[in-house]
Design a protein that fits this description.
The longest helix has 49 residues. This protein has a domain of 53 residues. It is built from 5 helices and no strands. The protein is an all-alpha fold. The protein starts with a helix and ends with a helix.
């Protein structure tokens, strides 16, 4: 029995150490995730407070809705040249330099409080 304990003792200690290390790694990952969540919530509350008196989101909402209103207007007054102008406007926007498109995208995204614009831009390609 003495030989068996001499052999199994170090193996048991090694297994116990390994399990303890795994537990500590799990705890560290959990703490890191919790810190990220707390930071995100803090950032969102700061952005909500800062945008309380801001007009940027209303401005971009109107800008983004303008083509829809123009198309509705064209249908109501039966003036299809307005729709042609909307198409020309979008065609012109598609010829803008790429850096300007990115800046515009970031400005609109930040106005609406969308984070991770880089991830959304990757989806675009």
């Amino acid at each position: 029995m003495n030989i068996l304990s001499a052999v199994l003792g170090p193996v048991t200690n090694l297994a116990g150490t390994w399990m303890n290390n795994k537990h500590e790694q799990g705890q560290a990952k959990h703490k890191a995730k919790m810190a990220i969540i707390e930071h995100d919530a803090d950032w969102e509350s700061k952005m909500a407070a800062a945008s309380g008196s801001s007009w940027k989101d209303e401005f971009w909402t109107v800008v983004l809705a303008a083509p829809i209103f123009m198309i509705g207007y064209a249908i109501v007054v039966d003036d299809m040249t307005v729709i042609d102008r909307v198409h020309q406007g979008f065609a012109t926007l598609s010829t803008l330099p790429e850096f300007y498109t990115y800046l515009l995208f970031i400005a609109v995204s930040s106005s609406f409080g969308l984070r991770g614009a880089d991830k959304l831009m990757k989806m675009r390609k």
